[in-house]
Amino acid sequence: MIVPTARTVFGASAMLAASVLSTAGTVAAQANSPSGLTADTACNSNLCLNAIYDMSANRINYTMTTQQGGKQIGWYAVGTGSRMAGSDMMIGWVGTDGKPIMSQRTASGHRMPTTAITAQAAMPINARTFSNSTGTAWSWSSPVSSSSSLSPSAKTSFIWAVNGNSNPADDPSAAIREHTDYGVLNLDLTKAYTPPADGKAPPVTTTPATSNGQTGDASASSGGDGDEGSSKTYRLILAHLIFMTLAWMVVAPIAVLIGRYGRTTMKAWYPWHQNLQFGTLVLAIVGFGVIVYMVEDGGGGHFDNLHAKVGLSVFILAVLQGVLGITGHKTRRFNPIRIVHVVVGVVTMALAIWNVGLGYELWSEQHGTKASKYIIWGVGFGLFGGLWVLGLALLPKQLKTWKAEEQEKRGLPYQHDQPPAQYQDQQQHRRNRDDIRLLEKSQPPSLE
């Protein structure tokens, strides 16, 4: 396996490039001997991709172009196949010195691509790579292996992605922020190649190429024109963030605090606690479904990082909590199910708050916002956790009331969702009623 580094991607000599171009049938040779070559170009509003396939050498020469250039313009990428997982990608950007940078990468799913590739190393075509006021072009040559996700055909798919707002460092292995737009380009690599009249590479353009009459299908699962807010992925991640923040940082804490304080201060605390926790579960299910759909849609691997694994655990615990809560409500006080419900609830809330912080940390890394996991943890563990711990001071009063209730063997059965004051009123009413009945029995029968 050959893993590209800064030297392998950018330091290839002119002799090596010339050798690759000669083997693959490069632009100069193509002008004189186009037999056996096929080619196509596809464009969208962000970039163009031109591919020239030499069936005899089993190699493809690529040129990715954009109209912007001469300065840092964010990053642009294309990759083989229609999904990120296993795609052989080339990511290009412009360095601080104004020179184009290329980095060959792959990904196991919908996550940041790395340079730990399994495909054969691509070779840069320096003569056709540039960035100036007319635009930017990144050009390279790659072998087509039987193990790759690429199979040249009438509909050869290539994923593409851009982030015009984020400029990676000058190191080819530098971290990149998440794309703001993406999609799929379909090229027809069965079309015979017709070289341009001047023998030069396809022009830099972001409108369908017409130099050889070959324009690919630019159909794409794109989210829009490149604006961050229009990106499908961006919208799905934002929706996931909103649903989970509402669930675990707003609704669930309120429900838990009602359960902690309401037993001694509210006449009807349980319906509030139950309904709010039901709302938490609904929000969590929606948020969970959104992110699972996003990963599946992007061809990624599910639950392949810490945030995703903890999130799955929290989701399972939340469902379990719902079952324990409903079941425990039907049992007597101090039933083991109720004790387990309390313990699992504390663990679930702690994990949820911690994981929301991890989520915001990922959001900050990908989108450059000021959101911080420490703010989330401060609010969650500091404010909510502090209030919950203070509520434990009410336990002695609770236990005293419960003890008194257990000593009452007659009258209406005590419901755990009744506050002590209401229960005492019921008991006093019962005693008054019994006293009246005893008085009536002690009186002599009427002579009438």
From TrEMBL:
For this protein, the parts annotated as crossing the membrane are 237-258, 278-295, 307-327, 339-362, 374-395
Q: Where is the signal peptide?
A: 1-29
Region Disordered: start-end pairs = 194-228, 409-448
Q: Name one Pfam family in it.
A: CDH-cyt
Is Electron transport tagged as a keyword? yes
Q: Where is the composition biased (Polar residues)?
A: 204-215
Q: Where in the cell is it found?
A: Membrane
Gene Ontology CC = membrane
Query: Where's the Cytochrome b561 domain?
Result: 201-393
Q: Gene3D superfamilies from the xrefs?
A: 1.20.120.1770, Cellobiose dehydrogenase, cytochrome domain (2.60.40.1210)
Q: In this protein, which residues make up the domain named DOMON?
A: 45-163
- Compositionally biased tracts (Low complexity): 414-426
Q: What is its main location?
A: membrane
Mind listing the UniProt keywords for this protein, alphabetically?
Answer: Electron transport, Membrane, Signal, Transmembrane, Transmembrane helix, Transport
Instruction: From the Swiss-Prot or TrEMBL record, give the protein name.
Output: Cytochrome b561 domain-containing protein
Q: What is the lineage of its organism?
A: Eukaryota, Fungi, Dikarya, Basidiomycota, Ustilaginomycotina
